[in-house]
Request: fold
Amino acid sequence: MKIVTALLCAVAAIAAILGIAALATSGPMPPQGGSRFPITRPADPRERHLTNLRQLTDGVQNAEAYFSFDGKRLSFQSTRTPYECDQIFTMDLEGHDVRLLSTGLGRCTCSYFFPDGKHYLYASTHLGGPACPPPPDMSHGYVWALYPSFDIFVAALDDPTPRRLTDTPGYDAEATISPRGDRIVFTSVRNGDIDLYTMNLDGSDVRQITHEIGYDGGAFFSPDGSKIVWRASRPKPGPEMDEYKQFLAQGLIKPHSLDIYVANVDGTNVRRITDNGAANFAPFFHPSGKKLIFCSNIADPKARNFDLFLVNLDGTGLERVTYFEEFDGFPMWSPDGRTFVFCSNRFDSGPHQTNVFLADWVD
Reply:
């Protein structure tokens, strides 16, 4: 499947920060492919919710593109020259004014703008060393790596030097921010399992909100900030649980079976939305707050093709949104609900590419 995709000495930290200042203040980067963006693409008549489809990146791997709270910019992760693994970038809605937001060191993931539009957060391994951490061993099948050097950082557009928000041993990543502007939700292994936590925007008042054994991650807030939606695995006692714990001990998860859950922002009133035996992930609330969209391979008997689906909060009304024969994922609406962003392998100009697309949304 072609998707991108998660405590050191003071000397290493200082060296990393010095490198950050040099790289992150280097100014705008040229867009991939020059000034030809956005590229208007033909519509698939089956994708009736999506009109005016346009492509904002071309080449390499680009994923997890998320709107700023004013709807004017996107943050996203990309592997592009001269970087060997994912870094965090921003661009406008034309695919122009591409700028590096992260350090240029280590591997980065899961960026998100603050409501003020001036600050942003992301997860990075750069304090663990300037090199990209090694990819996971796929001899076990398709797995995700939970790099222990991942921590969450905040920086500003006018001062990209990152400030660390998490400093517990092990993986801290997958952070997003409430529309209320008061809390961050994120994933951490600090208790020995992979759970969701919330914290204030300055990293204080950390609260654990999921407690069942299994992976909990990729959480987003509802439009009113009262609920969260996330992806989770719930391994059954026996061989399934044993495998989960063995992989977790190696810093790995095998996302072959994930379901979508919704709960109140404090973790109460948990509801399971999907129960289909598929890999369901990347959920996001519809602007109405009454539906969800998520990515799933439920429509492919071989479990290789991922598309986007709408569903009601009670699990009814499943509706397929995209029909591309490979990967469509990482959906999000603009704050006004009119524009839709997602990432896809469609219209690739070469192998192993994922690109960012915008469309006008039709309910």
The longest strand covers residues 61-67.
